[in-house]
Structure formats: C-alpha cells, structure tokens
Write a structure and sequence with these properties.
Keywords: Oxidoreductase. This protein has eight helices and four strands. By secondary structure, it is of the alpha+beta class. It has a domain of about 130 residues: NADH Oxidase (3-Layer(aba) Sandwich). The radius of gyration is 18 Å and the shape is globular. The structure holds flavin mononucleotide (FMN).
C-alpha cells in the first residue's frame, strides 16, 4: 500500500532533458506524460483499482460525481474497444493492456442538466493519470475514437457523454513503434505561464 501514497522526489530521466518548469513543482506533475510505446506487462487489479479510486476522489459540483469509467482488461473486452478506437491511435494503443472509456452523466438526479459534468470528469481523469504515474504506470488519453460505435458496442445510454479512451500500462520499447511515432516519443513542453495566466483581467 505504501507505494500508492509515496511522494515522487525525482524527475524521470526523459523528463529531465525535455521539460523545465518556470516555478518549482513536485516532479510528479512533469513526470506524467503520454507515451505511445507500451510493454507487454499486465496491470494488476490492485493497481487498476487504485488509479480508479484516486479518480473518484476528485472534486465535483455538488459532489455529483458525474464521471463513469468503462474498463477493458480481458482480451475479449479489449477486442470490443479496439473496434471503436481510430486507426491512427490503434497503431500503438492496440498494445495497451488496459483501456478505459471516460464518460460523464449530463443530468443530475433531479433531471436538471449538470453544466459541470465535463469539467468534473476531466478533473477525475487528471487524478487517475497522476496516481498511475505514482505507481510507475503510463497513461495516454485519446479523443480519436468513434463515439457512436462505442455507444452502440458498450450499450451507453444517451444521458452519458463519451469523452476519451485512456490507455494504461507500462512504458515499452519505442523502437517497436512506427518511425514517425518514435520521433514523437518524448515528453513535450508547455506554453509560457504568461500566455495562460492573467492578473485581474484578461489582456490577450
Ligand atoms: C482529451 C484528450 C484527447 C487526446 N486525444 C489524443 C489522441 O486521439 N491521440 C493521441 O495520440 N493523443 C491524444 N491526446 C494526448 C495529447 O496529445 C497530450 O496529452 C498532449 O500533447 C500533452 O502531452 P502529455 O500528455 O505527454 O503531457 C489527447 C489528450 C487529451 C487530454
């Protein structure tokens, strides 16, 4: 259990040479990145439960907890998910041992629309990704999937919106990726903070 709550104190080697924060932050935030090279190693049910547990402790408007996670981890379940992930993602995502559809409930218990459902579910996915990093796992969100096909194949009701498919697994050998993807298999950067943070009023 202790490794689930351990504090990350070191930047990963590939992060050290590619990412720099302007202000100090725990290395955990930079160590999370979205690789495409997945190893064959399976994810234990214990670790899978831990990342989902972390996700569902996210804050949400009125504590409505609109997030829903549909998990594929058996060959049969993965085979169904592979039918709706876009071709350009399947090139690498077919190797991921776990895929998770992140959905959210658009209506509250009383039937009113929940305007915060997407915001809240994004927060939950962020927690999932950070907890995965703490466990030595990697994650990669994909918006590139056929939502209608997913809805049909997974029997998803209309009141749920489908946001992303998340690949979860362990970092693998990038030489097994197609060349164009090998070149992109590095942590990327961020805009300067001054382009996204404004004081008092928005100035750009
Ligand atoms: C909602 C969402 C959809 C995304 N869709 C895709 C996708 O379809 N294919 C892909 O390769 N990456 C996808 N990404 C990954 C982003 O490109 C990546 O998170 C971004 O470049 C930042 O890099 P980092 O996650 O390594 O920090 C998606 C990320 C998010 C959050």
């Amino acid at each position: 259990m202790s490794n689930h709550i351990s504090v990350v104190t070191e930047f990963a080697p590939e992060v050290q040479s590619n990412r720099k924060s302007e202000f100090p932050v725990n290395p955990l935030f930079l160590n999370r990145w979205s690789p495409r090279a997945y190893s064959e190693r399976k994810v234990s049910d214990e670790d899978l439960n831990t990342i989902l547990e972390a996700a569902h402790w996210a804050p949400s408007a009125s504590n409505d907890q609109p997030w829903r996670f549909i998990v594929a981890k058996t060959q049969e379940q993965l085979g169904i998910f592979h039918q709706f992930v876009n071709e350009f993602n399947m090139v690498w995502a077919s190797k991921a041992p776990v895929l998770i559809v992140v959905a959210s409930k658009k209506v509250r218990g009383n039937g009113d629309p929940n305007v915060a459902h997407a915001f809240d579910s994004g927060t939950a996915w962020g927690s999932l990704a950070l907890q995965a990093t703490l466990l030595g796992l990697v994650t990669h969100a994909m918006g590139g999937f056929d939502r209608e096909k997913a809805r049909q194949l997974l029997n998803v009701p209309d009141e749920l919106e489908l946001h992303a498919v998340i690949a979860v697994g362990y970092l693998g050998d990038k030489s097994k990726l197609p060349e164009a993807l090998q070149a992109r298999e590095l942590p990327n950067g961020r805009l300067p903070l001054s382009e996204v943070v404004f004081e008092g009023t928005i100035t750009k």
